[in-house]
Amino acid sequence: MRKILVVGLGLIGGSLAMALRGFEDFEVVGAVRSQATHDKAAARHAADWLTFYPADELPGADVVILCQDPAGIIGFLQEHRDRFKAGCLIWDVCGVKTAVMEAAQCLPAGVDFIGCHPMAGKEVSGIDNAEAGLFRNTHFIVTPGPHSTPEHLALLRRIAAHCRFGDVIETTPERHDQMIAYTSQLMHVIAVSVCADEGLFSCKGFEGGSFRDCTRVAALDPAMWTQLFSLNAPALCQVVEALEGRLRQCREAIEAGDREGLRSMLAYASERKKQIDLERVRGDDVRPSFGNS
Amino acid sequence: MRKILVVGLGLIGGSLAMALRGFEDFEVVGAVRSQATHDKAAARHAADWLTFYPADELPGADVVILCQDPAGIIGFLQEHRDRFKAGCLIWDVCGVKTAVMEAAQCLPAGVDFIGCHPMAGKEVSGIDNAEAGLFRNTHFIVTPGPHSTPEHLALLRRIAAHCRFGDVIETTPERHDQMIAYTSQLMHVIAVSVCADEGLFSCKGFEGGSFRDCTRVAALDPAMWTQLFSLNAPALCQVVEALEGRLRQCREAIEAGDREGLRSMLAYASERKKQIDLERVRGDDVRPSFGNS
């Protein structure tokens, strides 16, 4: 029997441990730090068994999944670099990839680190909110290292299929970070910036679906997102600044009473949105084939 | 038998006509402009009967619901000001209230115009997407005129209950427009500004729930939203400019590597979001009482 060690049973780690149940001949071991998480994970049968001592499991672990925040992942790699089993596969789940791939260079040859980012989440955190179905039909982004083996990539694809991800996207850490600055980090910057408005509490009763949707992710973990933003500063600042410019452009057209200019901006964006929605539908159709990009 | 005339069977008008089925002793008449909408509305039994000539129905209509865009509503009031039945109630559903309330001043005494705004919608439009359940648990905002009668306000509340709105919010047109600039129009400005980014199409495969949620409303009707934005320009420009400032502040903290400043911004907004979510849950609890604000 082979062994998967999941380090950190928060929302993502807990959900992964649950989703991995029954995967091939692997047993799933969950590493926790607090008694509270241990007890909740035990009550929910989140893993085959639980430990407070991940270091003891490393020599026997064929797959290690690091589900901490970026600093936790980087620290774990540095602290335990010589304890991993030869030929094992390590992967992480955090939202930046260049920084963790660089940290993984401390690992000895024969230990394969592949950066991963499940594009799944919730506005609430912790094992309480974990669920096996969290990854269903979401993207699983994978950034292999220079020496990653085809066997490990194939194993990751089987894991993704078992966890019911919608597809596997293989890319470079740099491209991941550039794309994620726009698709994910910018959405979080927007949500917190909207919720920082002094009018937030007085607007109760006037909110509709668009407000709930846009601000959903504002209740984020400040410490973790400070890390994520800081570790991707250049790419993120670029997309935030570009957004500021487009907002200003839209505002200036409204201020100037330039209805034709405003209408053509709205028509341009609306058309693009309709197009990308169509593409997503087509993407759904081909999901079972697990394509690359 | 009394008569409700719904003018315009798009997403909102069509859904209202359907939701009003069986309301007290009213028959529901739907006024359409195109043969295509007529045929779809007939096939879906959207109203008790349909007409291409709303003017002919006005002398017998006890309630008239104007479901066009702002220009359509304002034009309809001006064109038909002398055809409404004495003592009737007219209300509209568009997203700005000051401009339509001003236009309604052309109506003769005894014809009661109440501005309304159902905080419901979809990212798709038209009778094809209409449904009786669209208003369930959403806010119904009401801006009475200076001479609106208690009887008409009570009638509107019974209509709101029948259509299963979550609550009725009574306010002034000016406050409505100020609040809506932030909770709704700003969300649409954000969505189109995000979708205007040159990186939109290349980000396929990297999007998660936050991106889908934030950009959902970008596929808007450019002509209608140009009207809505233009008719609420000062309030909207104010909130857009404030957002630009908060985005810049956040970006500057990231650029400067000011992790403590960034963390405290994120913590502030995150805490506010958690608080307002709690308030929404409490709001849900008291829904059946149909409170005011």
Descriptive account of the structure:
Two copies of one chain form a homodimer. The longest helix of chain A is centred in the last third of the chain and has 27 residues, at 259-285. The first copy, chain A, is an alpha/beta fold and 293 residues long. In chain A, helix 6 (150-162) links the parallel strand 7 (139-143) and strand 8 (167-170). Chain A has helices spanning 11-19, 35-43, 54-57, 70-80, 98-103, 150-162, 173-195, 209-215, 222-230, 233-255, 259-285; strands spanning 2-7, 26-31, 49-51, 63-66, 89-92, 112-118, 139-143, 167-170. Helix content of chain A is 48%, strand content 13%. An eight-stranded mixed sheet of chain A has the order 3-2-1-4-5-6-7-8, with helices on one face. Chains A and B meet through helix 7, helix 8, helix 9, helix 10 and helix 11 of A and helix 7, helix 8, helix 9, helix 10 and helix 11 of B.
Task: Briefly characterize the structure.
Helices cover 48% and strands 13% of the residues of chain A. The first copy, chain A, is of the alpha/beta class.
Which descriptors would you attach to this protein?
homodimer, 8-stranded mixed sheet, disordered C terminus
Topology:
Two copies of one chain form a homodimer.
Chain A: E1 2-7, H1 11-19, E2 26-31, H2 35-43, E3 49-51, H3 54-57, E4 63-66, H4 70-80, E5 89-92, H5 98-103, E6 112-118, E7 139-143, H6 150-162, E8 167-170, H7 173-195, H8 209-215, H9 222-230, H10 233-255, H11 259-285
Parallel strand pairs in A: 1-2, 1-4, 2-3, 4-5, 5-6, 7-8
Antiparallel strand pairs in A: 6-7
Helix pairs in contact in A: 7-10
